[in-house]
Design brief:
With 978 residues, the chain is mainly β. Helix content is 5%, strand content 45%. The chain is built from six helices and 78 strands. The protein has a 41-stranded mixed sheet that branches.
């Protein structure tokens, strides 16, 4: 029966083919690559006729790559390949189609297992690793295959269409939660009755069409946490929404939506940073865009240049029901923006919705793609046939130079092409590879042309004003070549760099194919001390009039001084999804640059090399737009750093959607620092900031409703590494921790004197007091370590406290964390208690703390992750704050220290929270924001440094102590703490 169904389908599609215009094949010819696997009838018994089941053949071809080269390419000839169950694509493997027509993966009508919409099943699944399976089975059987993850690099599908037949309501074409240099490109998803084309998308999608389905794309944020970027996508005929998403960092360039109820829908209760540029919407029943969490700073929405026809309702907000109507039958949206807006540096933030729409008589023409096509495929010259070896040992410099001189387009099969000196391209040279992890141009260490003190020397150089294209290659300058620049780019506005990896650092294989460890045993340098970090010039240097389009670039070499430097150019440049990571001093720099649009730039700082790493530096530049910027510091980071972006002597700098975060305790203290005027913006999440270059007006100090008359913030002490974890003694003195130096300090409130209480190597993180004055210390050491001592007692003895099962303890004071990076709702259970020496107080602890549970090697309990603990009162309200959610919550404390009825209090969240006797709530979130018990903002207390923890102390409890990273501050208040 199944075979008969396949025959009918094949005949049906043969008839339709005569009347339908199929997408053009991107790779029209077979490309020779000795290391690749070809899915042929001879090698794998693949039929490609749309009738026979080719699932086993395809899986075995993918397995063959994993078993031999581990990463590489499966080439798929033109044909129709019927799949009957999920095919797994292992990390680093690309499946690429070729032929006069694109190959097609087909799911036949009513394929068993794909009928139930509530039991989603995938045709193709990008995996995080290959588990053990029945290798000899037909088909191979794999169980418990893990999702692709932040360490899944280079996986892709290109130039293959996917077709879902009728009666497959539970079918999704692709699941792809992968990371850098993974993509779906040059594809058409004919979803029909299926559920979705893509469910859980990775970083990049390019030149794709989605026809039918409940959704075209259904996704959350990609697994590394970076943005999801789609360039040149078309959607038509989805039954519910073309894109359903939550926190996806959605970056859409030139999308086209047609004949759907909704183009983009954000799930209820979720935010997103959404950037849409040059979109086209036609026949959208509406609303075209549905947004949620409209009052949260994480909701950052900006759209520019949206052409609409027959779109009567453009946008709707779920919570408020607010609607934005279209401006006629045909109209153009110049601007739609919603979120937290700053009109300039130094200005107060304001939540705004901007909507500028004007009617048109005719629909404007679609924006032209800025991704130039490759030259005719039959003109490509194979560098192996021209004498290059690509074996990782032979010197291919001369062969490649001759190839450049004699041919416009050079195709590089998989391999490592070693050079000793610069490859200078002609103005129209095109370099093509298909896998930047398996195909690279590389320097061996110690090449003479790149040694000594001197100016930068490029490994590959594109000439001034050229129309060059470099695509699908890895470029590796290795570690002992201090004058090296991997790619010096002076080509013009119509040039392209796409799918290029600037190798070095994480994810870089050795030239011989082995695994390269980027760290020594304590993450302070390379395992080879001769390979020093931060000694090379920038990996990618765009200069001297250089410009063009830069798409899907990964540049993480710790040997380079920066991942990208743009200097001395006014030529238009565009960046889509560039990941620059793991540098010592700079990620991306713009010096004397103008007319650049940088969309979906992502940076990451690692604890070993990037403690003093500035993500983005803009100097002496103008007319720069940075949209959907994502800056991140890893969970194990411990070194503070002041800013994510530094701007100097620049004008016309526009930020649209700014996302700065870290699940460590040292996120960047400020988002943007204007060095010219010495002003910083500490808000880490916002939708809009324009930097005019003008000096901000002087701030006016308003009369405070909470500070004591005449009181101002006073610096008490400084010179700390990063302080928090404080507690107030029964006498009103402040005790606090500088965890990096393992020191516990006391600030004597009467004598105004700082003393060191303990500096033993016992890893103190948090402090609390019982009523008798015993100091209770939460330690990072061991699993669930809590100890206690009398601060004024002689000697260094401590008493270990043991966890007990949680019970209701009448009359005792529970002590709880004031928040977490991301709060669980309902609240995380706290099944353990540490009873104080005097029996009056207990710490309510979660299982993550007592077990020592880790995430990425770092303990992740709120007992350690919070910036402080605070006493609570059973039956009363307790406040917790969250950096990631940008919210503060209110809950009720139970007698066993657990929390119930946890509800959002205000759409403001940060590091610390404390309550005064009037019930006013003070939240440390860049500055100190004071809210009434009803959640109305009544005051802002500005602090010279970012506040981390707030505590009321002093003999009368009217002094608000402020732990602010390297300094301790205080301000007198009108009322005492609760």
């Amino acid at each position: 029966m199944l075979r008969r169904t396949g025959v009918v389908l094949g005949a049906m599609w043969a008839l339709l083919a005569a009347s339908l215009v199929w997408p053009a094949s991107y790779y029209t010819r077979r490309l020779d690559d000795p290391k690749a696997v070809f899915l042929t009838k001879e090698a794998f018994a693949a039929q490609g006729d749309g009738v026979a089941d080719d699932t086993t053949a395809l899986q075995r071809a993918i397995d063959r790559v994993q078993e031999t080269t581990r990463q590489g390419i499966v080439f798929l000839p033109e044909g129709r390949y019927r799949l009957s169950h999920t095919v797994y694509i292992w990390p680093g493997i690309r499946v690429i189609g070729y032929g006069t027509a694109r190959p097609v993966f087909v799911l036949g009508e009513n394929t068993p297992g794909y009928q139930d919409k509530s039991n989603e099943r995938y045709m193709l699944f990008f995996a995080g690793n290959r588990p053990a399976g029945a290798h000899g089975a037909a088909p191979p059987v794999y169980e418990n295959v893990p999702d692709a993850n932040p360490g899944t690099f280079y996986s892709a599908i290109s130039n293959i269409d996917i077709e879902i037949g009728a009666g497959n309501a539970g079918a999704t074409a692709v699941r792809s939660k992968y990371a850098q240099h993974c993509f779906l490109a040059h594809m058409e998803f004919r979803i029909g009755s299926g559920l979705a084309g893509i469910h859980e998308a990775g970083n990049v999608v390019e030149d794709v069409r989605f026809l039918g389905g409940q959704y075209g794309v259904w996704t959350s944020r990609p697994s590394p946490g970076w943005q999801f970027t789609m360039v040149d996508a078309f959607f038509q005929g989805q039954r519910e929404a073309s894109i359903r998403e939550r926190e996806a960092g959605l970056t859409l360039i030139r999308p086209h939506f047609q004949d759907v109820p909704t183009a983009i829908s954000v799930d209820a209760g979720f935010a997103d940073e959404m950037w849409v540029k040059d979109a086209r919407m036609e026949n959208i029943a509406g609303p075209a865009v549905i947004l949620s969490a409209e009052k949260n700073a994480r909701t950052e929405i900006n759209m520019e240049g949206v052409a609409c026809r027959n779109v009567p309702r453009f946008a709707e907000f779920r919570e408020s029901g607010k609607k934005l109507a279209g401006a006629g039958a045909i109209y153009q949206i110049k601007l739609f923006s919603h979120g937290l807006h700053y009109t300039d540096i130094g200005a107060a933030g304001e939540y705004k919705t901007l909507y500028e729409a004007a009617p048109l008589s005719t629909l404007s023409a679609p924006a032209a793609s800025d991704l130039p096509d490759l030259p005719a495929r039959d003109t490509w010259a194979n560098v192996r046939e021209l004498g290059a070896k690509g074996d990782g040992q032979s010197d291919d410099t001369d062969a490649l130079r001759r190839a450049i001189a004699g041919h416009r387009t050079l195709y590089f099969p998989s391999g490592v092409y070693v050079v000793r000196d610069t490859l200078v391209l002609k103005p129209d040279t095109v370099l093509v590879g298909l896998h930047p992890g398996a195909t690279e141009i590389a320097l061996l260490d110690g090449r003479a042309a790149f040694q000594g003190i001197g100016g930068p020397v490029a490994m590959v150089e594109a000439p001034k004003g050229g129309t060059n294209i470099v695509i699908g290659l890895g470029l590796y300058t290795n570690g002992i070549n201090p004058r090296a620049v991997a790619l010096k780019w002076m080509a013009g506005a119509h040039s392209l760099v796409n799918d290029v990896r600037l190798l070095g650092g994480h994810g870089t294989p050795k030239i011989d194919g082995g695994r390269e460890n980027p760290y020594n045993s304590n993450h302070t340098g390379d395992p080879d001390p001769r390979r020093r970090w931060d000694v090379q010039y920038p990996s990618l240097w765009v200069t001297d009039g250089g410009g063009g389009t830069f798409f899907d670039i990964w540049t993480p070499s710790s040997f380079a001084q920066a991942g990208l430097l743009i200097s001395d150019t006014t030529t238009e440049g565009r960046i889509y999804e560039l990941s620059s990571e793991h540098h010592v001093r700079h990620e991306v720099q713009l010096h004397n640059a103008a007319n650049w649009k940088i969309y979906a730039l992502q940076t990451e700082g690692e604890r070993g090399e990037s403690g003093a790493d500035l993500p983005l530096e803009i100097q002496s530049s103008r007319d720069i737009t940075v949209a959907n910027l994502c800056v991140y510091r890893v969970i194990s980071m411990f070194q503070p750093f002041p800013w994510a972006v530094k701007v100097t002597d620049s004008t016309g700098i526009r930020f649209r959607n700014f996302h700065s975060y870290s699940n460590s305790k040292v996120s960047y203290d400020a988002a943007v620092y204007d060095q010219t005027h010495h002003v910083e913006l500490r808000q880490r999440e916002f939708a809009w900031l324009d930097l005019s270059g003008k000096a901000p007006p002087p701030s006016r100090r308003a009369v405070s409703s909470v500070r004591a008359p005449g009181a101002s913030v006073e610096k008490l002490a400084g010179g700390f590494y990063s302080i928090s974890g404080g507690a107030i003694s029964p006498s009103g003195d402040l005790y606090f921790v500088d965890a990096h130096w393992q020191r516990i300090y006391r600030w004597d409130a009467k004598e105004h004197q700082l003393t060191t209480v303990r500096d033993n190597a016992l890893d103190p993180v948090q402090l609390a007091f019982d009523r008798a004055g015993n100091l209770i210390v939460v330690s990072y050491a061991g699993n669930g370590t809590v100890y206690s001592f009398k601060p004024d007692a002689p000697g260094l003895d401590v008493t270990l406290l043991k966890p007990e099962p949680a019970i209701a303890r009448a009359g005792l004071t529970p002590v709880l964390p004031v928040g977490d990076w991301r709060l669980e709702v309902p609240a995380l259970p706290r099944p353990f208690q540490y009873i104080s020496p005097d029996g009056t107080t207990f710490l309510a602890a979660d299982e993550l703390f007592t077990s020592g549970s880790t995430a990425w090697g770092v303990k992740n309990s709120p007992m350690l992750r919070a910036f402080g603990l605070t006493p609570a009162k059973p039956g009363q309200a307790f406040y917790l704050t969250s950096e990631a959610q940008m919210q503060t919550f209110r809950a009720i404390v139970n007698a066993d220290g657990s929390l119930s009825d946890m509800q959002p209090f205000v759409e403001q969240g940060g590091e610390g929270v404390v309550v005064d006797a009037r019930g006013n709530v003070y939240i440390a979130a860049g500055q100190i924001y004071v809210y009434t018990p009803a959640g109305r903002l009544i005051d802002t207390i500005e602090v010279p440094e970012r506040p981390l923890q707030l505590l009321f102390g002093g003999p009368d409890r009217r002094t608000l102590f402020i732990a602010a990273r390297s300094s301790l501050y205080a301000v007198r208040t009108q009322t005492h703490g609760r």
